[in-house]
Amino acid sequence: METRTLTLDSPLTRKLSAFVALSDSDQETLLHFYRRRRRFQPGHELIHEGQTKASAYILAEGWACSYKLLSDGERQIVDFQIPGDFLGLRSILFRTSDHGIEAITRIEASEVLRSDILDAFAHAPRLATAVLWAASRDEAMVVEHLVNLGRRSAEERMAHFLLELGARLQLVGLGDRTGFDCPLTQYHLADALGLSAVHVNRVLRHMRENGLVTFRNGRVAFDDFARLGDIAGFDMAYLDQEGPRLR
After folding, report:
1. pLDDT at 16 over 80
2. What is the distance between the alpha carbons of residues 34 and 43, in angstroms, rounded to a whole number?
3. DSSP summary character for residue 140
4. What is the pLDDT of residues 146-177, one digit of tens each?
C-alpha cells in the first residue's frame, strides 16, 4: 500500500499526468517500474557512454546530469535530470549508450529494464503514449539547448536555462514562480552553457545586480520573473505542460 501511495504521488506520475489523465490500469502498470529502487552517491556513474545492455532509471529524488566526453577529456553536459525524469531511456533501446549519466547529488532511482518498458507499452497504450510524450519533450529541450549554445548571448542563455529549470521543477511540485532549490555549481553551469566558470560567475553577478535573479546558497530566486522572460525570449510552449489532453 505504501509503494502504491508513493507511486500515485510520484514526480513521474505528476509529469505524465500533464499529458494524459492516467487510468487506474495505467497507474497499476507504473507500479512495476518501482520494484527495483536504488540509492546512489554523488559522482556515481549510472550509465557510461558505449555501455551495452544498460538499464534505464526513473529518478525519484535528487539531481543527475547527462553528458558527452570529448577525446581531450572535456565534458559537455547535455541536460540535467530532476525527479520524474527517465535516465538513459535511449540506452535500453539502442545497442550501446550514446551518453553518460552521473549523479550530482545523492539520488534515489528505480531501475527499469527493457522488458519492463516493452511490457508496459503492450498492456497500457495510453501510458506508452505518455512516455513517448515525455521523450519528445526531452528532445524539444535539447533543440532549445542547441539554440542557446549557437545563437543566444551568455545572459540570454543563463536566463533561458534557469526559467526552463524552474518550469520543469514546478511541474513536479518542486518550484514556483518565486524560484527553486538548485544544487548546481558554477562548473555545472559552465559545462552546460558552453561558458567558463569565471564567465558564469560574472553573468550571475550582473543579473543579480540588475534585479533579475539571485543564485545563492543553493537557491535560485526570480527577482523579476517577467523581465527575465523578456531577456531570454522564453516561450514555454515547447515544454507542453499546460494540462492533460487525453482523458
Report:
1. yes
2. 23
3. H
4. 998 988 999 999 999 999 999 999 999 999 99
List, as one string, the DSSP characters of 75-113. Answer: EEEEEEE-TT-EESTGGGTSSB-SSEEEESS-EEEEEE-
Which class would CATH give 2-136? mainly beta
Q: What is the phi-psi region of residue 84: left when phi exceeds 0, alpha when psi lies from -120 to 50, beta otherwise?
A: left
Other CB atoms within 10 Å distance of the CB of residue 236: 15
d(CA 122, CA 193) in angstroms, rounded, equals 39
Cell matching residue 19? 499529458
CA distance 179 to 152: 22
Angle, alpha carbons 117-120-123 (nearest 5°): 150
Q: What is the DSSP string of 28-53?
A: HHHHGGGSSEEEE-TT-EEE-TT-BS
CATH architecture, domain 152-239: Orthogonal Bundle (1.10)
Question: If you ran DSSP here, which 8-state letter would residue 194 be given?
Answer: T
As a whole number of angstroms, the distance between CA 100 and CA 102 comes to 7
**pTM, rounded to two decimals:** 0.91
Strand pairing category for 100-103 and 64-69: antiparallel
Q: What is the pLDDT of residue 244?
A: 60
Angle at 65 between CA 62 and CA 66, to 5 degrees: 145
Q: Which amino acid is at 58?
A: I
pLDDT band for 1, please (50, 70, 90 cuts). Answer: very low
Q: Where are the domains of the chain?
A: 2-136, 152-239
